[in-house]
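Worked example 2:
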Amino acid sequence: MDKALERILYVEDEDDIRMVGEMALVDVGGFEVRSCSSGAEALAAAPAFRPDLVVLDVMMPGMDGPSVLRALRALPGTAAVPAIFMTAKIMPSEVAELKAAGALDVVPKPFDPMTLPDEIRAIWSRAG
Protein backbone atom coordinates (compact mmCIF):
# COMPACT_ATOMS: atom_id res chain seq x y z
CA MET A 1 0.00 0.00 0.00
CA ASP A 2 1.23 3.49 -0.77
CA LYS A 3 -0.11 4.86 2.49
CA ALA A 4 1.40 4.07 5.89
CA LEU A 5 -0.74 1.81 8.06
CA GLU A 6 -1.84 3.76 11.13
CA ARG A 7 -5.56 3.30 11.88
CA ILE A 8 -7.13 -0.12 12.37
CA LEU A 9 -10.79 -0.93 12.92
CA TYR A 10 -10.68 -4.19 14.91
CA VAL A 11 -13.89 -6.23 15.12
CA GLU A 12 -14.02 -9.18 17.54
CA ASP A 13 -17.03 -10.38 19.54
CA GLU A 14 -15.10 -12.25 22.27
CA ASP A 15 -14.19 -9.77 25.03
CA ASP A 16 -10.94 -11.49 26.11
CA ILE A 17 -9.65 -11.91 22.56
CA ARG A 18 -10.62 -8.33 21.67
CA MET A 19 -8.78 -7.00 24.72
CA VAL A 20 -5.59 -8.95 23.94
CA GLY A 21 -5.76 -8.04 20.25
CA GLU A 22 -6.27 -4.37 20.98
CA MET A 23 -3.39 -4.33 23.47
CA ALA A 24 -1.14 -6.04 20.91
CA LEU A 25 -2.06 -3.60 18.15
CA VAL A 26 -1.82 -0.48 20.33
CA ASP A 27 0.94 -1.27 22.85
CA VAL A 28 3.16 -3.49 20.69
CA GLY A 29 2.27 -2.20 17.24
CA GLY A 30 1.72 1.48 17.96
CA PHE A 31 -1.46 1.60 15.87
CA GLU A 32 -4.48 3.79 16.52
CA VAL A 33 -7.25 1.24 17.06
CA ARG A 34 -11.01 1.41 17.30
CA SER A 35 -12.28 -1.87 18.73
CA CYS A 36 -15.82 -3.06 18.09
CA SER A 37 -17.65 -6.03 19.59
CA SER A 38 -20.08 -6.55 16.69
CA GLY A 39 -20.61 -5.94 13.03
CA ALA A 40 -23.30 -3.37 13.75
CA GLU A 41 -20.95 -1.45 16.03
CA ALA A 42 -18.24 -1.57 13.33
CA LEU A 43 -20.59 -0.25 10.67
CA ALA A 44 -21.58 2.62 12.94
CA ALA A 45 -17.97 3.48 13.88
CA ALA A 46 -16.17 3.02 10.55
CA PRO A 47 -17.22 6.17 8.65
CA ALA A 48 -16.13 8.58 11.41
CA PHE A 49 -12.99 6.60 12.35
CA ARG A 50 -11.80 6.33 8.71
CA PRO A 51 -9.61 3.23 9.15
CA ASP A 52 -6.68 2.36 6.89
CA LEU A 53 -7.43 -1.32 7.51
CA VAL A 54 -10.22 -3.44 8.96
CA VAL A 55 -9.33 -6.57 10.96
CA LEU A 56 -12.41 -8.79 11.23
CA ASP A 57 -13.25 -11.90 13.18
CA VAL A 58 -14.97 -14.36 10.85
CA MET A 59 -17.42 -16.06 13.21
CA MET A 60 -19.57 -13.60 15.14
CA PRO A 61 -23.22 -13.66 16.16
CA GLY A 62 -25.58 -11.51 14.13
CA MET A 63 -23.32 -10.44 11.27
CA ASP A 64 -20.32 -12.63 10.52
CA GLY A 65 -17.08 -11.14 9.23
CA PRO A 66 -17.82 -11.59 5.51
CA SER A 67 -21.23 -9.93 5.99
CA VAL A 68 -19.61 -7.00 7.77
CA LEU A 69 -17.08 -6.65 4.95
CA ARG A 70 -19.86 -6.64 2.32
CA ALA A 71 -21.71 -3.96 4.30
CA LEU A 72 -18.53 -1.86 4.64
CA ARG A 73 -18.01 -2.14 0.87
CA ALA A 74 -21.47 -0.60 0.40
CA LEU A 75 -20.60 2.52 2.44
CA PRO A 76 -18.94 5.37 0.50
CA GLY A 77 -16.27 6.08 3.14
CA THR A 78 -15.18 2.46 3.59
CA ALA A 79 -15.81 0.93 0.16
CA ALA A 80 -12.10 0.62 -0.63
CA VAL A 81 -10.66 -0.03 2.84
CA PRO A 82 -8.60 -3.25 2.84
CA ALA A 83 -9.52 -6.03 5.27
CA ILE A 84 -7.84 -8.94 7.02
CA PHE A 85 -9.86 -11.77 8.53
CA MET A 86 -8.95 -13.58 11.77
CA THR A 87 -10.24 -17.10 12.35
CA ALA A 88 -9.47 -20.45 13.93
CA LYS A 89 -10.68 -22.12 10.73
CA ILE A 90 -7.68 -22.01 8.45
CA MET A 91 -8.30 -24.84 6.02
CA PRO A 92 -6.92 -23.82 2.60
CA SER A 93 -10.40 -23.86 1.05
CA GLU A 94 -11.76 -21.58 3.80
CA VAL A 95 -8.82 -19.18 3.43
CA ALA A 96 -9.42 -19.11 -0.34
CA GLU A 97 -13.11 -18.29 0.23
CA LEU A 98 -12.23 -15.43 2.58
CA LYS A 99 -9.72 -14.01 0.12
CA ALA A 100 -12.31 -14.35 -2.65
CA ALA A 101 -14.67 -12.36 -0.40
CA GLY A 102 -12.19 -9.50 -0.52
CA ALA A 103 -9.66 -10.09 2.28
CA LEU A 104 -5.98 -9.32 1.82
CA ASP A 105 -5.18 -12.39 3.91
CA VAL A 106 -6.23 -14.45 6.92
CA VAL A 107 -4.52 -14.45 10.33
CA PRO A 108 -4.98 -17.69 12.25
CA LYS A 109 -6.29 -17.82 15.81
CA PRO A 110 -5.00 -18.15 18.36
CA PHE A 111 -2.55 -15.38 17.45
CA ASP A 112 0.66 -14.38 19.23
CA PRO A 113 0.09 -10.87 20.64
CA MET A 114 3.80 -10.09 20.36
CA THR A 115 3.96 -10.87 16.63
CA LEU A 116 0.45 -9.85 15.53
CA PRO A 117 1.40 -6.26 14.60
CA ASP A 118 4.34 -7.45 12.47
CA GLU A 119 2.14 -10.07 10.82
CA ILE A 120 -0.43 -7.40 9.93
CA ARG A 121 2.30 -5.03 8.66
CA ALA A 122 3.71 -7.84 6.48
CA ILE A 123 0.27 -8.49 4.93
CA TRP A 124 -0.16 -4.74 4.37
CA SER A 125 3.25 -4.53 2.67
CA ARG A 126 2.60 -7.53 0.42
CA ALA A 127 -0.69 -5.98 -0.70
CA GLY A 128 1.05 -2.77 -1.76
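The radius of gyration is 13 Å. The mean pLDDT is 94.
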